Structures are given as C-alpha cells and as structure tokens.
Amino acid sequence: MTQRWPVILFALVMAALPLLPEIPPFWIVLLNNVGLAALVAMGLVLLTGVGGLTSFGQAAFCGFGAYTTAVLSTAYGVSPWLTLPLALIVSGLAAVVLGLITVRLSGHYLPLGTLAWSLGLYYLFGKLEFVGRNDGISAIPPLEIGSWRMLDAGSIYYVIWIAVIVCAVLTTNLLDSRTGRGIRALRRGHIAAEAFGVNTVRAKLLVFIYAAVLAGLSGWLYAHFLRAVTPTPFGVHASIEYLFIAVVGGAGYIWGGVLGAVIVILLKEILQSYLPMIFGTQGQLELIVFGLVLVALVHLAPGGVWPWLAGVLPFKRRPPRIDASLQLAGRPATELPPVLLQLEGARKQFGGVIAVNDVSFSVKPKEIVALIGPNGAGKSTTFNLITRVLDSSAGRITVCGTDVAGTTPQQIARLGVARTFQHVKLIPDMTVLENVALGAHLRGRSGTIASMLRLDRADEAKLLAEAARQIARVGLKDQIDQLAGSLSLGQQRIVEIARALCVDPLLLLLDEPAAGLRHMEKQQLATLLRQLRDGGMSILLVEHDMGFVMDLADRIVVLDFGTKIAEGTPDAIKANPDVIRAYLGAAA
To answer: Which of 154, 260, 445, 526 has most Cβ atoms within 10 angstroms of its Cβ?
Structure first.
C-alpha cells in the first residue's frame, strides 16, 4: 500500500549528511538528538494520534531503557549490545504493569494517570542508590563493532538513524494491517471496534507497550551516546516536549513524528543560539519566541506539518491492488436453529428510568423483523442489550440458542451477529475500503509481529478482497478509495452495512439504515436486504420510514416507552389502534 522509494531516498540523504564537509560536528549532535526524540514521538503518534491515548509519561520509559543498560554495562560488565534486548524487556514490562492500570482509564483521567506515575518514577530515579541517585551513572561504555568504538557523535549517528528508519517502517507496516485497523478504530471509541471483534483492552495495551519499547530503545541509545545518565532527561518536562513534537509533526502520522522532532529541536537550538546575540542575554527570550512560533505552527497547520507537507509533495499513497479471485473462508454450513434470536422479558433499568420493560420477541431464519416506535421507545437500547454493549437488568436473551449473559461484544460477533449504529461510527480518516475491512477482523489470523514484518500479506489480501466485494455489493464501488469522512451521511450508512456484511453474519442488526437516503437509494437498499434474506440471512432493523418498513418487513414489533405494545404483520400493525394512537397517528 505504501511507496518504498521515498523511504529509500530519505535513508540515502540521512546517510550522506555526515559525509558532507560543510556539516559541522555540532549539527551531527543535533541530528542525533532529533533521532532520539523521533523514536519517542513515533510511539506517541501510535499511542495518542492513532490510538487516542494521551500519555505524559514516555520520558520515564526512556529512563527504564537508559538505566537498564547503564547499570548492566557498568556494574556487571555486560556488553552494551547484550543489554539492548534487556532494556527493551524492562521498558515493556514496566509498560505492562503501568498499562494494566492506566489504559482502563478514560477521559481526562488517562493523561492524569500517566502524569502521576511519570512524576513518581522521576523522583524514584533520583532516590535509588543502585542507579546513582541524582548524580546518576557515568563512564558508560560506548557501543563497539569489532575494534571500532563509537566514541563520538558521528560514529553513533548511523546506529541512531538506522533505528529510526527501521522503526518507522515497522510501525507503518503495523498500521497497514488487520491489527493496525483495530488500533486505529480505538480513537473513535470502543463500541464499534468491539462490535467487529477487536479486543479493545488488548489493543490499547499493545500500543501502550509498543510506544514504551520505542522510548526504551531511545533511552538505550541515549545512554551510549552521552555515556552518562541522570534523572533530569526523564521527567515530565521531557514527556510534554515529546508529546508536543508529535502534535507539531502530525499526531496521526508516523513520519510526522520524525518531522516534528526536526522542527522542534532545531528551532529550539537556533533560537537559543541567535536570539541572545540579537537582543542581549537578559532573561530567556528564546523560550517566549519558541512558544509563539510553535503556537503559530499549530494554528497554521492544526493537523500537523506532515499532512500539510504531504499534500504538497508528489509522494501519494497508492490504492491497494485487489485480487477479486481471493476468498475468505465462510461460516461453516450448519443447520440453523428454528429461532436465531430470542428475547424473553428483556429489561434495562437506569436508576429509576426503565428503558426496556420486559420485552419479548424472536427473529427466525430468513426473516426481516422491524423494531419501530417513537423516539426514546428503547429500540437502540434493545440493540445494545442484544450485542452486549449494555448488560440486561433482567430477562434472557439467546443467540442461536446461546445465552448471551456474561458474554462480550466480541463473542456476539463470533456467534454471527453484526450491526450498524444509530449514529454513524466510521473512522473518517480511513478509506471506505479500510473501514469495511475492519468488519472482517475476526476472519483474519495474522498477529502483530507478522504485520510488522509484512508476513501477513496473503491474509491481508483476502480481507481486502472481501471488503471490496461487499462494497461493490452495496453499490459504492466508485467510492472505495475515498476517505469515509468525505462521504454523505447516507453513503456512510451504506458503508456501515458493507462493514457489517464482512462479518459474514447470520443475523444483521440495522439501526436506521435508510436515514439520509434518497428515494431511489432506499429502493436499492430494500432490494439488497431482500436478497440477503433470500440468501439465508436474518435481519432486525430499526427504522422511522414507515413506507420503507411496511414494504420490507415480514413482521413488526412496536415499542412505546420501553414496552412492547404490538407485534404482527405490516397489515396487522397498520390496523392496530394502540399503534395508531402511540406512533402512526390517526391519519393512518
């Protein structure tokens, strides 16, 4: 999906810079600092910009990597290269411990939680005897390759930037995969991601650990670059700067982390060097100007400098090649039970408010059932009870004979239930193809490591082929490579249906699928739903367009204030006086 030659060109430019006679050694030191910051910023791009988890503690993970190699190489004489995996493991284990506590937080509690343990770890580094307290550890041995000792900035430069480029490529590969789509779905909330089988807690912990490992790698390189470690670079101030680097470069873009590091570190150094020469040495004017310039940058490019620059440069993202001959394995052919979905006295109570009041109905194989009623009747809440977004207060709900009590939304998806949402839940900065492919998450097998190493291409090709097939099925083939956020509301609802079809469901739950559609589009949708029913799929839909519902549904269930007031065929519902009084109106 991504073009490789711009990365190769960038690598060649970075390799040539130290060889230029015009480049002074001090600028090589600055480029090393840029590389170290870029590694941390890349992790923050994945964690914050893509995953939606704000962290003020990444510098602490740099400290874990730096102190691990410092202690092992000075006190125990372990080779610096052998300390690398240990430094990454220590950073990763620290992330597991802190992440199990932190990633379950939401809203402003998450960044406050990272801020709290970041402060605690900073002071811990300054109090522990075996890491040198506030004096730290010095005389750390340099990296060596044979007899070549990397004692200066120019010699370790290549190690740092090889690490940056390799990590950028691996991270880009990760995002361009089944696992990456699950991570990218986190930013829009957990409900939609879980509905298609993404284990959101595991995905959050994964990006938290991955960002920590990148920071640990930066810390390891930092220790052998400066050959001394103190607590100062691993405090909250440094964490805030790393986060700012990610935002300036482009919080949702891997290479934006690299660009942000270049802008922030070089700009800060230029201001510190030249402003005192212009205005004198009184005060710290460079900090004020630095802040004003960065605020101006964020104002001019609110999405970051990288997406703005990417729109100017000729490097464009190529759409993937779809092999239409590839097929995903379908659901095993088994005899369907006489009832796919059964609600028996389902009840949901929020304090003193009863949203769903002892509702009972069923959906049989090859049947379209409509759930109608006024706004606030409990229709979407009923959907959430079926898909386990909400726990039932009482009653029993079964899917294919399985009681859903105590299950998760992911397990409901595995049972063959897929859904759309009353309020569209697409990822606007992903293409239609990528959004729909998220629906096939449970039908893929490749994991994180395989994705990073591009060993998932065969599996990924099948997922994308299935997504393209469902997009064509719903009539949006021409929009397949457009960003989902650029589509009309009606088209976005159709994209949600295509995404749900990628689950290969037995039961499809559609929440107001015709809202925002024009007349002809509604007719096409009705034709599609009839084809799905005739092909063996059952459909439960919520809809306010009574003409659409009456022409389509086999049976209709009517709710009013959370209570079922009628059930029957469309003709029976149209003639029911309770339904006329509560919903349809006397004119009906």
So the answer is: 260
